[in-house]
């Protein structure tokens, strides 16, 4: 299988069949907290896509050219999370200076992203699955898009449900989890289409 | 240590301030590992260990950490303890280490640990912080154990790997997969909140 | 704050971060060094157990005995470039090989699956199967490591087909795991690919010393 085709199938799978949120349960906290409104979800989603794609690529480089040659693989958790924290900090500073519009749209979400388990998770999975550089980048980008897809869909559903009568005990996190369960079932229907 | 403060920490973390079903934190790992009871217990042990010690360390260093890099230092401390857990598991419990896979590393981003470090350890003494960390971990643990018990029972017909339901039982495979986790947790929150509201109504 | 004070504060922050990172990394390096030997030994032992199990030999209780059994009865057959091709396993006390074990890595659903497959001397039937490394879904795909799943391969011959879990399987079929279609298919591919790729190689190399 050619390199480009492999990277593309990983990209596709990361969005649909191995959705990092609906299949691997990563990124739930911010997902549940932010998914009440479509507008904020889009903002957070785009920030996540950017960070996930960039940090997957950066962490691949750090892993392959620093950790492995120096026999420091056991430090990968620290290395990855520091890369992510540093990148987010940098991105926030750059965006703040570059564009007010962009900052208002996604800059404010950036601090929230550092602790998003999906970002670290994507890097860890990429290492476990021994992806090449292009596959790792495709995986990060695809996972970000997949996560965003899930959160926007969820926000859309929750906005519509604002008028529905939900049992008091289920309001908030309870119903959000149940909806996510159904979404996960729906996405399971796509399983097996691609093996990555 | 003052008795009333100890009581307050314990009851909040186990009950009305429970990290999982009240603050809705640490959900990722809750969903991922609770399909096998054994893995859940190891995960909880790891989390209690890391939360307690990281709270202790952050609290001990709280006067020296510059404000700007507060979160990075906290992350460094948490990540270090997680690496210790990871190495110990690989050395002494390799089978379980293999099953937990990347989820051990994801203890780092578990919002509970960072949450307690920020909310409590940065502004309280070391002793209370350690207690707060341990009890927050316990609050997380008992919720996960209950969910894992049902998920493994219904999904694999077993408890702790031992088959308890006879051949008449058809495994609810969905309980072992992602949707089962979401439903179980949602159900758990519903039951707990429902009971609470009844209590509030009564009083 | 005056410029000089700001710079000093900035430098102080970076210095603090650097120092504290160094302290923690040193502590972790220490822990790593202390556990390294055990981790390596565990890994080696796992592989040895898998090879012995796949060849149909019964596994001794202790780790020491396993390592001894492996050293005495298993011979590594290497290719021209020095790469490991397969293992030749002799039953204890006999000269003729009991079978050949090949260890291979293939993609699973979540990550790589490292499988050890044992073939009989006639290169027709499977002696056994074991998974050295897999990262499949716990409770589902990961069940391929359960003993019932691995035991069903003894004596079977490929190329293989899948049957549903719980259904009687013929000698060229094996039971999949309900709810773990992708992983079951991955194992199917591993076996069929191995039959196609590895058997000719073993046949060619086994005569050589």
A few lines on this structure:
Chain B has nine helices and two strands, in the order αααααααββαα. With 203 residues, chain B is an all-alpha fold.
Notes on the structure:
Chain A is mostly helical and 196 residues long. Chain A has 9 helices and no strands. Chain A has one domain (3-188). The longest helix of chain A is centred in the first third of the chain and has 30 residues, at 38-67. Chain B has one domain (3-202). Chain B is mainly α and 203 residues long. Chain B is globular. The model of chain B has no long low-confidence stretch (mean pLDDT 86). Chain C is of the alpha+beta class and 209 residues long. Chain C has one domain. Helix content of chain C is 44%, strand content 20%. The relative contact order of chain C is 0.11. Classes of the chains: A mainly alpha (196), B mainly alpha (203), C alpha+beta (209). Chains A and B meet through helix 2, helix 4, helix 7 and helix 9 of A and helix 2, helix 4 and helix 9 of B.
SS class of chain B:
mainly alpha
Task: Estimate the mean pLDDT confidence of chain B.
Answer: 86
Please bin the fraction of helical residues of chain B: over 70%
Q: Supply Rg of chain B.
A: 18 Å
- Taking pLDDT < 50 over at least 5 consecutive residues as the criterion, the unreliable ranges of chain C are none
N-end to C-end Cα span of chain C: 79 Å
Tell me the total number of β-strands of chain B: 2
| SS element count, helices of chain B | 9
Please indicate the count of domains of chain C: 1
Task: Please identify the structural class of chain C as seen in this structure.
Answer: alpha+beta
- Poorly predicted residue ranges of chain B: none
Number of domain units of chain B: 1
Q: Which quaternary structure do these chains form?
A: heterotrimer
Query: Any idea what the shape of chain C is?
Result: elongated
